[in-house]
Specification:
Blueprint (H helix, E strand, L loop, with lengths): L6 E7 L8 H13 L3 E7 L6 H8 L6 E4 L15 E5 L3 H4 L5 H13 L7 E4 L2 H11 L6 E3 L20 E5 L7 H8 L5 E5 L4 H9 L3 E5 L4 H10 L2 E4 L8 H9 L3 E4 L2 H7 L4 E3 L4 H10 L3 H16 L3 H17 L7
Helix pairs in contact: 1-13, 6-11, 9-12
Length: 337
C-alpha cells in the first residue's frame, strides 16, 4: 500500500437471496466497521449466469485484496494472480453421506481442491472447521486464520422476567438439527417449542401425536429473530453438525441459557457457558432442561453465556479481518498461483 492510499478490498458473494443470508449478514457488519479504513467493492454472483460466467466476471472486480466470503469458492479460479482470501464456514455438504460420489467429486474439485490453489489465506470460523480443512486437504496451517462469526448488535441483553424452562426455542430445521430427540425429551411435560424453520411432516406428526404445544416461524428478519430470543426461556441447539453455531452466542448475548452438543464446533463455542449434552440421548436432554428449573443454575448459565458472547463482538471480529488484510497486502512474498 503506497503512501496514504487506502487498501482496497472486494467482497465476493453468492447470488442475492431473500432467506439464508447469514454469510452476507456477517460481512455487512465487517464492512460497516471498516468502511472508513479501506475502499470496499462488492461482487454478487448472478443467478441467471452459469458458474463459469460468474467466475469470469469476478476477475473484473479484483482489488488489492479479494475476499471470497463463502459458498462460492469456485470464484477463486477467476482471480488467478491476485491476493485472495477464502472463508470456509463448514464442511457439512461435503461430509453429507446422501450425496452421490460424482456430486461429491465435483464439489471437492471446484469448491475446495482447485480454489485452495488460488488463494493465499483461508479463514475458518472455528477450530473445528480448521481441523476438517487439515484432515481433508492438508492445507498449510500457517495460511489458516480462525476468525469466528460476530454477534449482530441487534441481539442485546433483555432480562427474562420469569426465568424458567417452559418455552424452548429451536433455531433451524433439517434432521441434523435434532428436533426428533428434543420431541422425545419433552414429551409428557408442560413445554412449548418455538421452531424457526420448516419442520418435516414426520416431525410435525410426532409433535401432534405427543400433544406437544408448538409454534412454527420462518422467513424472519433479524429483529423478529431477536423477539423470539427474548420470548424463549432457553435455546436448544444440540444438533449433530454445525460449522460454528451462531444461535449459541446470539441467544447468550440476549441473556438466555443454551443447551448444545458436547462435541465439535458447538462444544468449542459453548464450553463453559452452555449446558453440553449427548444429542443422541433424549434422557440427557430432558435432564438438562429440568436443571434450568433451579433459579441459581439458570442465572449462572445466563451470566456465563453473556461473558462468552462478549468475545464475539462484531467490532473485535472486524479488527481481526482488517489486520489480516493488512498482513496480506504488505506480504510481498505472496504470489497466487
Amino acid at each position: 500500500m503506497a503512501g496514504l492510499r487506502k487498501l482496497s478490498v472486494t467482497y465476493f458473494y453468492r447470488e442475492p437471496r431473500d432467506t439464508g443470508q447469514s454469510i452476507e449478514g456477517i460481512f455487512s457488519l465487517v464492512k460497516t466497521c471498516l468502511k472508513d479504513r479501506m475502499l470496499i467493492k462488492e461482487f454478487f454472483c448472478s443467478a441467471g449466469l452459469s458458474r463459469s460466467a460468474n467466475t469470469r466476471n469476478a476477475g473484473k472486480y479484483a482489488s488489492d485484496i479479494n475476499h471470497i466470503t463463502g459458498d462460492v469458492n469456485f470464484l477463486a479460479l477467476g482471480l488467478k494472480g491476485k491476493k485472495n482470501i477464502l472463508t470456509i464456514h463448514d464442511f457439512g455438504f461435503y461430509e453429507n453421506p446422501v450425496h452421490s460420489k460424482p456430486v461429491k467429486l465435483i464439489y471437492r474439485l471446484f469448491w475446495f481442491y482447485l480454489p485452495l490453489k488460488y488463494v493465499d489465506r483461508v479463514t475458518v470460523v472455528s477450530e473445528f472447521t480448521k481441523s476438517k480443512l487439515l484432515q481433508y486437504f492438508n492445507y498449510p496451517q500457517e495460511k489458516i486464520s480462525v476468525i469466528p462469526n460476530p454477534v449482530k448488535p441487534v441481539f442485546v441483553f433483555t432480562e427474562n422476567e420469569q426465568p424458567g424452562n417452559a418455552r424452548i426455542l429451536m433455531m433451524g430445521t433439517g434432521k441434523h438439527k435434532n428436533l426428533d430427540n428434543l420431541i422425545e425429551a419433552v414429551k409428557g411435560g408442560a413445554y412449548h417449542i418455538d421452531i424457526i424453520g420448516w419442520p418435516s411432516a414426520d416431525e410435525l406428526d410426532k409433535l401432534i401425536q405427543y400433544q406437544i404445544s408448538y409454534t412454527v416461524y420462518n422467513k424472519l428478519t433479524d429483529q423478529q429473530v431477536y423477539e423470539r430470543y427474548c420470548a424463549c426461556d432457553l435455546l436448544f441447539n444440540a444438533s449433530f453438525y454445525e460449522g460454528f453455531g451462531m444461535p449459541i452466542i446470539e441467544v447468550q448475548a440476549v441473556g438466555r441459557p443454551v443447551i448444545t452438543s458436547n462435541f465439535g464446533a458447538m462444544k468449542e463455542v459453548g464450553a463453559g457457558s452452555a449446558i453440553l449434552v449427548d444429542p443422541n440421548r433424549p434422557d440427557e436432554i430432558r435432564m438438562a432442561i429440568e436443571s434450568l428449573q433451579n433459579k441459581n443454575t439458570y442465572n449462572d448459565i445466563v451470566a456465563k453465556g453473556r461473558a462468552n458472547a462478549a468475545k464475539y463482538d462484531y467490532r473485535k471480529i472486524a479488527d481481526q479481518y482488517f489486520e489480516l488484510y493488512q498482513q496480506l497486502a504488505n506480504d510481498n512474498s505472496v504470489l497466487s498461483k
